[in-house]
Amino acid sequence: MNASVSSHDRNDIPPHVLDQAIAWLVTLQSGTADTAMRSACEAWRAADPIHERTWQALQAVEQEFRTVSPVFREHAFKTLETAQRHRGIDKRRRKALKLLGVCATGVAVSQFVAGQSPWRHWTAGLGADYVTATGERRAVDLADGTQLMLNTATAVDVKFAPDLRLIILRQGEIFISTGKDVSSSTGRRPFLVETAQGRFEAIGTRFLVRQEESQTRLRVEEGAVALPAKAAGSRVIAESGQEFVVGGAGPMPVTESRFDAIGWIDGALVAKQMRLEDFLAELSHYRDGWLRCDPGVADLRVSGVFQLDDTDHALDALTRSLPVRIERRTRYWVRVIQS
To answer: Residue limits of the FecR protein domain (predicted)?
Structure first.
C-alpha cells in the first residue's frame, strides 16, 4: 500500500499510536522477526484505520530520508539514541535500531517524532534535569528540602534562583512536598510549578500536578495552591482535598474521581467503579505498546487495587472479576475482549 500522507495527517496522529508504529518498525527491521511477529504487525495495522495511516506515514518519512548524507544520518541516529536512553528503552531495541538500513530509519523516526507536536514520549526528556522511563517512579530530594516524586514517563527541570524556586513539568506527573527553604539567605522563596497551562504557586503544601494532553490536573493533599488565573484578579486557590483541571476555559473543579490520583506513589492504581476503557487508558501509562478494549466491554466497571510494577498481573486480575479475557498477540499488543 502506497497511500500518500500529508504533513497535516502526520500531525493528527495520536502519540500512543505513533509509539506503537515505531516499535513495530524497529521489530520488523531488526532481522529477528518471524512469521508470527509479521502477522501480528499486520493484525495491528488492520485493527484500526489510524494504525495503517500511521504506518504509511512512518514508511513515507523513512523513504524521504534514504538519500540523506551519511554524516546527517549518523547525527540524527545519535539524537534518537540519546532520546532512547532517557526513555529507558532496552538494549535490544537500541541494537535493533542500529540495523535499520544504515540508520535511515533512525533518521526517519527522529524527524517524524520532531514533527509531532503532542508526542513528547521520547523527546521531552532530552536535557531535562530529572527523567523517568515508562513504568518507572523516582524520588528526588531537592536542595531546599523539597521532596519531589516523579511518576511514569515524566520529565522535569528544576530552576532555583535567589528569589524563586521553579519546577518546570515538561511531561508526566509529579507529587511535591515543599521544603522549608531554611538555607536561603533571602528568606523563604516562592515555590512555583510551571506547566503548559501556566504557573501554580504552592502555599506550604503537598500536592500533585499532572500534565495531560490539553490541560493540567492538580490535586492538593495538604495546604493550598494558587492556580493560574484566566484573567487579572481572578486567581483560584485550591485547598486541601480539592482537585482541579486547568485548560482553555480556566480552572474547573473536579467533583468526582474514579481513581485515587496519588495511589501511584505507593505503586498502586486504585480504581473505584472506573470504566474499563478508562482503567486501561490509565494502566497503559505504565507499560509500552498498545493496550485497548473491545467497545462491547468498555463500560464495564472496575474496582480494586492493582500493582503497577506488574501490569500483566493487573490485566489478568480483570478476568477474575469481569466477563472478559485478555488477547495478547505480542507483549506490545494487548486487547481486552468479552469472554
So the answer is: 129-225
Q: Are 305 and 274 in contact (CB under 8 A)?
A: no
Say how far apart CA 330 and CA 323 lie, in whole Å. 22
Amino acid identity of residue 217, one-letter, is R
Quickly tell me which residue has 501490569 as its cell.
Answer: 311
By C-alpha distance, which of 225, 243, 245 is closest to 235? 225
Distance of CA 14 to the CA centre of its chain: 12
Mode of pairing for the β-strands spanning 155-161 and 191-195: unpaired
Its CATH class, for the domain covering 263-338, is alpha beta
C-alpha cell at 166: 521553579
Residue 80, helix vs strand vs coil: helix
CATH of 130-253, picked from 3.20.20.70, 1.10.10.10, 3.40.30.10, 2.60.120.1440, is 2.60.120.1440
pLDDT, tens digit (0-9, with 9 covering 90-100), for 105-126: 444 454 454 444 334 455 566 7
